[in-house]
Each structure stands twice: as structure tokens, then as C-alpha cells.
Amino acid sequence: MELRIDGLSKTYPNGLRALRDVSLCIPQGMFGLLGPNGAGKSTLMRTIATLQEPDAGTITLDGLDVLRDKDLVRRQLGYLPQEFGLHPEIDAASMLDHLARLKGIANRGERRDHVDAVLQQTNLHASRKKKLREFSGGMKQRFGIAQALLGHPRLIIVDEPTAGLDPEERHRFLNLLSAIGEAVIVILSTHIVDDVKELCSQMAIINQGVVLRAGAPAAAVEELRGLVWRTLIAKDELPVFRERYQVLSGSLLAGRVLVHVLSPVAPGKRFEAAEPGLEDVYFAAVRGSVS
Asked: Is 102 in a helix, a strand, or coil?
């Protein structure tokens, strides 16, 4: 199974070029789409989900024309947008039953069994009679995945799903996504590097509507081996370092700043070689693309 995107472009009426000739090949499994806020991730997700038209380009799902055969695609698609509304006074099981009917599952018994199955899969079965207003943030996100699983989709899109979750709920949610991704295509759109590092065997980094790099996270990290250096500096030194070196990141550590710098050789005596990580790959790509 494969989702193929070729030459996708989108410019909004206000002149914003959200996508610029985006081409990607997304295989079965977990695929991470990394980029800062405003990079074009949500525009790409909405376009794949048939919610808006591009200006140019094609999308195919195992040969199915996503942009032309929208109704057929929607039967095979599960979508969890960054923000989604829930009727607060309806319980989880009733809401999923309603959504399953909208997905075309007409038989009442089949629908009941299917709703029970997705509630079990998302660890919400014990809370199925709770009203949705009683759900925690993490439970609401898992409910979002439950509704996305209705109809046995082949492609699932989740947009910034772990934003605002506490560490325990984030861990639970990522484990759920990982299990789902064993059998279908799951596109995880996020600006949280750790989510992609922990889950995805393939990824792409996008900024200003352009795909900066795509491939396996481990291979991208390996390309930076021997090129990342670190040192501890005082806070007031950071502006000078940004002017003098290609600073990838700076994080506070015991009142000082631990900086990572990209350089083919040691930038100076105070630097030591650093083990590169996916965060270094991300910052190297994104900061090198800013115009």
C-alpha cells in the first residue's frame, strides 16, 4: 500500500503559498511530517483528506485518484484534525454509533460490534457511557482516533495529536498510534520532533510549503555524524554565537546555555563533538531554509 503525492501546490487568495511543488511517497506504517507552525503541514493534510483543492498536482492511494474520486477515498480515510468538535452531552458510544451511520455502516448489529471494537482498541470501552464533556484531554484525543478508525480505513491522518497532553497520556496515545500503524498508512503531522523519533520509520521535513528532506530518520541523523559540536555558554553570549556560528539549538542547562553548532570541523577549543539527534536534523533543515 502506498500514498503518492506529485507536484502538489497551493496558493491562498491572500497570496500565501502554502505548498510549493510537494512530492512524497508514503508507504504503509507510521510516517512523520515535521515542520514548524505555518509550514504547510495542515494544508497538506486537508488536501489529502479531500477537504480542499490544490492548484496543481496529483495524489494517488494505491492507484486511486484522491482528488477525483473523493467519495471513494473518504470511505477509506480516517482523519483526526488538530481541532475537532464534540457534542458535550452525548456519551461516547452513542456518538460513535452516529458517526458510524454517517460512514455508511447501516446494519445495527454490525455497527454495534464495530463501535465496541474501536472503543476496546482505544481503551475507552469502560467509559463508553460517559458524556464527552467528562473526558480528559487524553481521552478526547483517543476518542478522536476511535472515530477515525470507523469503517476500517486504509489511510489515517492525525494532525498535531499530542499537543497539550500530559506525559502519561502522550505515551499512551503514541503507543496506540504505533499499534494502528502496523496495518495501515498513518500520517503523523507534528512540530514535536520526539513524536516522530519514537514512532516513525519514514518522515519528511517541510517548511514554507517546501519539502526540505524525506527518508528514514536514522539515516538523516547518521548524515550529521561528525558535523555537530556542543559547548556550554553564558546566556549573554548566545547572540554573538548566532552571528559567528551555525547554531542549531540552544537549551538552558543549570543557568547556562548548551548550544549545538553545525560545522565540518571543530569550531574552537571550547567545543566538543556531540552525538547528533533528529532534533539536530530538524533544525539544520528548517533554519537553513528560512528566507
From this structure: helix
